[in-house]
Design goal:
Distance between the termini of chain A: 46 Å
Strand content of chain B: under 5%
Number of domains of chain B: 1
Shape of chain A: globular
Radius of gyration of chain B: 14 Å
Shape of chain B: elongated
Number of domains of chain A: 3
Helix content of chain B: over 70%
Strand order of the largest sheet of chain A: 4-3-2-1-6-8-9-10
Radius of gyration of chain A: 27 Å
Distance between the termini of chain B: 44 Å
Largest sheet of chain B: none
Strand content of chain A: 5-15%
Mean pLDDT of chain B: 95
Order of helices and strands of chain B: HHHHH
Structural class of chain A: alpha+beta
Largest sheet of chain A: 8 strands, antiparallel
Number of strands of chain B: 0
Number of helices of chain B: 5
Low-confidence stretches of chain A: 522-542
Number of helices of chain A: 16
Oligomer: heterodimer
Structural class of chain B: mainly alpha
Helix content of chain A: 55-70%
Order of helices and strands of chain A: HHHEEEEHHHHHEHEEEEEHHHHHHH
Low-confidence stretches of chain B: none
Mean pLDDT of chain A: 89
């Protein structure tokens, strides 16, 4: 590769990293935690075991009731199965006459807007992951970030390509710290490259599918893509309601028949997860059961059945589906890491944290490459980058730990956990950014790391101390979700403490000609640095 | 540099879309069967085109070549729409 091409790609890599790095750090940190969404949900919002033997019979009666009260719902109404998640509530979803999605959970007496659902801790962190907590446009923003991320990956690999093999496992600790950071950035980037490619592609797809569909539909396919999309992603054939009423088979019965059909078609397992009726209560009604299968890249499969007599209309499950359904399902499977067992989720968790480190180290490399080596005062862009990196990245870690703590302490302060997670997170984040401006990045980084470490350890320790009964109760039942969240909180806290110690050492004894040195008193730069570098020179002379 | 970037975004996007759409049409008789995998290929293709745009010697050349590529790709799409069965087959 020509030197000028290499330089161009390096510039593109730098700028794409600058544009997307912060959003990606938040997405990866929150996304790593979201790998344990259900465990965090169990931890955050203790619920009585919802699944009972008659749950789905009660759900059937609720559907009858909803359709009787809201005739618009007969068009299409869905209901979730409790599956194996203790935290999962059974709820119906339908579109009312005004075109708005409504929902009603089994425990509720009246429908409500499907958008304003309960904002638990786990759901909130998941939302941070895909829209940074920005309503409406956040998800499109993250879609664009995913595209920029793709370009950063491509250029990063191209820049590193000439040295790829030679420096594959090189990690050179020693005098040149920038070299060490560069090595760490490269080795993590290359070793987790397949994982990053998966996220750049599936992340863009998941955020921008609707936009992409509308564009392709009008620009290239003359309106034929939308109806085809229905056929490519669901198993439900086109159905028409006929005059007359019909008695619907229950969700439990249809789920059992769907499982039977799926396994007969070659799926390893089939756990019904969600189902929907069209033309509920009318002749010609159909139902589609969505379920998850193990031993498949895309776990979701669908079986469509006649809702009145239960005969199978179409099967799209692992082992028996077309390329469209398999690909669509694989996009979700690859992004959410559902194609393996618990160990795969741990791998995704670790790779997610490593990804967050990749973006953080990218920013550090930007700072290090532009550092003035012979003066304490650093250029504005270096100081701004250091402030933003500490404020946004460490601020995110701090804010998320605070949100866990707030969720834990809220009930004893008389507040509902679901009401406070969002304000606590955003306030803590704003405070961390303000603190970084106030204290300058070198000191703020140490402060934020220490306080994040303390809060994280407190989350685990206080939960064990306050909710001892619940912990004992879940352990006795052989469920380890609560203990797992506590232990991971403490482990992450210890990790942050280690980073705090290292960062403090850097600030106190490291090269003073850097934004990461705290040796410069904020009032009079120069004087102390001169003394410090004098001291160094004396030492070197000796 | 900036001129190439805008060319990559503004002209690379429709070019990637047209290439994906033409490929779908060209799979005559099984267009709908390959649509999803090819739609998934859209974002990587766009990113690839963006990366390649930086290989042009100047911004002007990037705009010119990408414009020509777009005209060719959309002409092909226009002909394909008129002559091939497309989705639903």
């Amino acid at each position: 590769m020509k030197a000028s091409t290499l330089r161009t790609f390096t510039t593109v890599h730098t700028w794409t990293g600058l544009l997307a790095g912060f959003a990606l750090f938040i997405a990866f940190y929150a996304g790593a935690l979201t790998m344990f969404h259900d465990e965090i949900d169990t931890w955050a919002l203790p619920k009585a075991g919802l699944a009972r033997a008659d749950t789905m019979d009660r759900a059937h009666r609720m559907l009858d009731d909803i359709v009787a009260k809201h005739p618009g719902a007969a068009n299409q109404i869905g209901v979730t199965y409790p599956a194996d998640h203790p935290s999962r509530s059974v709820a119906a979803y339908w579109m009312d006459a005004d075109g708005e999605w409504k929902t009603q959970a089994l425990a509720e007496g009246a429908p409500r807007d499907a958008e304003d659902h309960e904002h638990g801790l786990a759901d909130f962190i998941y939302e941070l992951h895909y829209d940074l907590g920005i309503p409406v446009i956040g998800i499109y923003l993250m879609g664009i970030v995913s595209v920029i991320y793709g370009l950063a990956l491509l250029t990063g690999v191209l820049i590193h390509l000439p040295n790829l093999v030679r420096e594959m496992f090189a990690l050179r600790p020693g005098h040149n710290l920038k070299r060490l950071w560069q090595d760490a950035h490269n080795v993590i980037g290359i070793l987790s490259l397949p994982f990053h490619i998966v996220f750049a592609v599936t992340g863009a797809l998941l955020c921008l599918t609707m936009v992409m569909l509308v564009a392709f539909n009008s620009l290239a396919f003359g309106g034929k893509l939308m109806p085809a999309w229905e056929r490519m992603t669901s198993a439900m054939p086109e159905t028409k309601a006929k005059p007359g009423t019909a008695i619907m088979l229950s969700p439990a019965e249809l789920g059992a028949r769907a499982r039977q059909a799926a396994i007969a078609a070659g799926a390893a397992t089939f756990e019904p997860d969600y189902m929907r009726y069209v033309h509920y209560g009318q002749k010609g009604a159909a139902a589609e059961v969505r379920g998850t299968s193990t031993k498949a890249l895309g776990e979701f499969g669908m079986v469509a059945l006649d809702a009145a007599d239960g005969h199978v209309l179409q099967v799209q499950v692992p082992g028996a589906r077309d390329a469209n359904h398999a690909t669509y399902s694989a996009v979700f499977g690859l992004h959410f890491g559902t194609f393996g067992s618990l160990s795969l989720r741990w791998l995704y968790f670790l790779l997610g944290l490593a990804g967050a480190f990749l973006f953080y180290s990218g920013n550090l490399l930007y700072i290090e490459s532009r550092r003035k080596r012979r003066q304490a005062d650093q250029p504005l862009k270096v100081r701004a980058m250091a402030t933003a990196t500490v404020g946004v990245c460490l601020g995110t870690c701090f804010a998320i730990s605070c949100t866990f703590l707030a969720n834990l302490l809220a009930p004893s302060l008389g507040a509902g956990p679901t009401a406070i997670v969002e304000p606590v997170c955003f306030t803590a984040f704003a405070a961390a950014v303000a603190w970084t401006f106030w204290r300058r990045p070198a000191r703020a980084a140490v402060d934020l790391l220490w306080v994040t470490a303390t809060v994280s350890v407190l989350v685990g320790v206080l939960d064990v101390a306050v909710n001892t009964d619940r912990l004992a109760h879940t352990l006795a039942e052989g469920r380890y979700a609560v203990l797992g969240v506590d232990l991971v909180a403490v482990a992450l806290g210890l990790g942050f403490a280690w980073l705090a110690i290292a960062t403090r050492r850097r600030a106190v004894v490291g090269d003073p000609c850097s934004v990461w040195s705290s040796r410069r008193p904020s009032g009079s730069p120069g004087a102390e640095v001169a003394r410090a570098s004098d001291g160094q020179r004396t030492k070197e002379a000796a | 540099m900036l001129a190439k970037t805008f060319a990559a975004i503004v002209l690379g996007l429709p070019l990637a879309m047209a290439l994906v759409a033409v490929t779908i049409f060209l799979c005559r008789g099984s267009s709908e069967a390959v649509t999803m995998p090819l739609l998934v290929a859209f974002f990587p293709l766009w990113v690839g085109i963006m990366g390649a745009t930086y290989l042009f010697r100047s911004g002007g050349r990037a705009w010119a070549w990408l414009a020509v590529a777009n005209v060719v790709a959309f002409a092909a799409l226009f002909i394909a729409k008129a002559t091939l069965p497309g989705l639903g087959s």
